[in-house]
Amino acid sequence: MRKIVELLLLMLVLTHTAWGQGRRRKGQRDDNQVLQNKGKILICPVEIMFILDSSEKAKVLLFEKQKDFVLRFSTRLMQIQAAGWRLRLRLAALQYSSSVSLEHNFRDWQDVDVFQSRVASMAYIGHGTYSAYAITNATQMFSRETAANSLRVMLLMTDGVDHPRSPSAVTAASEAKNHNIRLFTIGLSGLPRDMPTNARLRSIASAPPQQHVLSLADNLLEDKLFRELNVLVNTGVSMSLFLVTIHLECKDDYL
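Structure for VWFA domain-containing protein, as requested:
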């Protein structure tokens, strides 16, 4: 039932955007939107945010391991393709502890080399863990800098245990999902599924958890995550194409 509701919401958002674009004045363009270019090329924005745990529990070695993962995986993300579409992929990154440090936002996107240079220069914070702050800040950035109909993905790295005074990460994650953000949690260590920490990661992540809860200790992490994102992108653009086609047919009938 939840999948059906999410699908209906996605269709509603995309349909509203498509009709809104039809009313734009001639020559007006918004690169954040899903566009049709001369009836041939469709452009789909894909926005992915990396959130690194820079708390005292992550420790320096785990923090460096997170950075290495981001550097490798951001290169691999450039290989994502969707037949018949031009993907406009942008990456962003922030790190968090008791505070949040924005390292690269979506608006600053130039290319993967610039992004990786920002990530490589990140300095470890080493204070308490407040993952709710990170999720909330990331959600606000998605709202400010990306279109509502873009494919939004948040990759949260965490040890799963927050400071006692931290706001609820589950509540913050729920708000992110309300903004059509797909949320993956990446645990900093391999944890048994029956551990309370793992249960918390599952409650933060999007459903189903078996697809959205991963581990930095898993040697197949990058393969699994790339596969999930590839499916997400291709499913998303297929739905967009379906709705754009309906819009164009309805527009032709109206004219």
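The helical segments are 2-22, 59-77, 112-120, 131-145, 169-178, 196-204, 209-212, 221-254.
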